[in-house]
Design brief:
CATH topology of the largest domain: Aminopeptidase
Strand content: 25-35%
Number of strands: 13
Order of helices and strands: EHEHHEEEHEHEEHHEEEHEHE
Shape: globular
Number of helices: 9
Helix content: 25-40%
Largest sheet: 13 strands, mixed
CATH class of the largest domain: Alpha Beta
Radius of gyration: 20 Å
Distance between the termini: 33 Å
Number of domains: 2
CATH superfamily of the largest domain: Gcn5-related N-acetyltransferase (GNAT)
Structural class: alpha+beta
Length: about 300
């Protein structure tokens, strides 16, 4: 493959089917070098503050799409985030070319740094990034819970309820308050929340609020995987985000809203629940451990300066 010619170019709308086939083939068989899930790729094309024609780059060889890199601008915190996928037969030259082009885009956007997240078990990805001058700056834990073994009811509790239409601003407020000064968090907008809740297989009912009268004190945002994610125990769900209003911390609200989210996922037929947590977030790790979550695997965040 070293003698093949590669074209690195901007994504075009007519590339969608070929891109989807590449993603499906690579992730179904665990082929290739990647840092993404299939849902991330497809759902991410239309997200706010992102232009596929400007921020997504394709690697093409002999008329075939063999890889891509996507640039997510998070300029409010001075960074761009890269996600990529390269077919295994093209894993030597293509990743470097794609990441170099993505870093050029980051400089065009005047970002200060670039971040990319990869599975810790992916030796090839870690070697690639280290060879390009990236350094590992954070470790995240991938946790899992078997709901059939957890003492979880199928009711969300009296002080919890689902998010209602028109309340997206309340969720934005508590998200941005809960995660202020948290590593890697880019403040959300109402537009982004609305986009996420309108995706296929998503809804406002995925989001559970804990309330004290009219004040939202905590939230748990759940997701349900689709496709080939059935297990012997049932479907597979995810705790997408969970936060507590800073003024209400230390009152057990985190545990309450977490159990509400797990109860709702159990009611909807989920058998396995997964989530991601920063290894340095001791309070969150203790909360999830108290509910029975266990470490399944780990991922690493790599960083490189663009200045």
């Amino acid at each position: 493959m070293k003698n093949r010619a590669y074209i690195i170019r901007n994504y075009r709308p007519e590339d969608f089917d070929s891109l989807a086939r590449l993603v499906s083939r690579a992730l179904d068989t665990e082929e290739g070098l990647h840092s993404v899930s299939a849902h991330d790729v497809i759902e991410g094309l239309g997200r706010p503050r992102h232009s596929p024609e400007n921020d997504l780059y394709i690697a093409e060889s002999e008329g075939d799409i063999v890889g891509y890199v996507d640039v997510t601008p998070e300029l409010g915190i001075g960074r761009v985030v890269l996600s990529y996928l390269i077919h295994q037969e093209h894993g030597e030259v293509v990743p470097v070319k794609l990441i170099q082009r993505a870093m050029s885009r980051g400089r065009e956007l005047k970002a200060k740094r670039v971040h990319v997240n990869v599975p810790e078990r992916s030796v090839s990805a870690r070697r690639l990034l280290a060879g390009m001058g990236f350094r590992c700056v954070r470790r995240f834990l991938e946790l899992g819970l078997d709901l059939s073994q957890a003492p979880v009811s199928d009711r969300i509790g009296n002080r919890c309820r689902h998010l209602k239409g028109g309340e997206e601003d309340k969720l934005v407020h508590i998200q941005n308050r809960s995660f202020a000064d948290t590593w890697g968090f880019n403040p959300n907008t109402v537009e982004e929340i609305a986009y996420r809740t309108r995706l296929p297989n998503c809804s406002l009912e995925d989001i559970i609020l804990a309330c004290d009268d009219d004040t939202v004190t905590g939230y748990c945002w759940t997701r349900i995987y689709v496709g080939k994610n059935k297990t012997a125990e049932g479907g597979k769900g995810r705790i997408y985000m969970l936060g507590v209003e800073p003024d209400y911390r230390g009152r057990g609200i985190g545990k309450e809203v977490l159990l509400a989210g797990l109860s709702d996922l159990k009611r909807r037929g989920m058998g396995i629940v997964e989530l991601t947590v920063d290894s340095q977030n001791k309070a969150a790790r203790a909360l999830y451990r108290s509910a029975g979550f266990q470490i399944r695997t780990r991922s690493l965040w790599y960083e490189k300066s663009l200045q």
